[in-house]
Hints:
Elements: E1 2-7, H1 15-29, E2 33-38, H2 64-74, E3 78-84, H3 92-101, E4 117-123, H4 128-133, H5 136-150, E5 156-162, H6 170-186
Parallel strand pairs: 1-2, 1-3, 3-4, 4-5
Amino acid sequence: MKILVVLCHPRSDSLTSQIAEAFSEGASKVGHQVKLLDLYKENFDPVLRVEDEPNDGSLENYSLEVQSEFERLNNNDAVVMVFPLWWWSLPAMLKGWIDRVWNYGLMYGSNGHNVKKGLMIAVAGATKEQLIKRDYEAAINTSLNIGILDYCGIENSEIMFLKETNKITKAECLSYIKQAYDKGLSF
């Protein structure tokens, strides 16, 4: 399987980055072809402009940047997004990538795409209790997994929450990295 791993974190030494790398290593070990898209390193512009909203669903009518990003995404069977959970959602950079690239006629609407499997790995500082308190985990799943992945026809999808990551020991960090690696092995 060909997998596009989309990393969204400003620091290359972050736990989020290490988790993306570990997932990629695990997936590669079992024979998947993995490509990494680091939105910050590539300086992706997340702002949706008029030229990226043609409303006709034709790829050639989008900006060259969106055409290129969509082709990169569409050359894969699966997409894995790894990001910190900020304000119970995606970071603005990742949301902008989705807004611009997962547009009408490309990822939803009349045209088809090749992505059949999706995974979002949310690295959360929140505790299990905080996520349960107001049913945030279910709300996030509805918003991101169902509202984005399923809406775009990616029925084989899930969100993996790595919780309580803001005050953890080195051993706990290594445990999360191993979980990501194992998820890559079983993907």
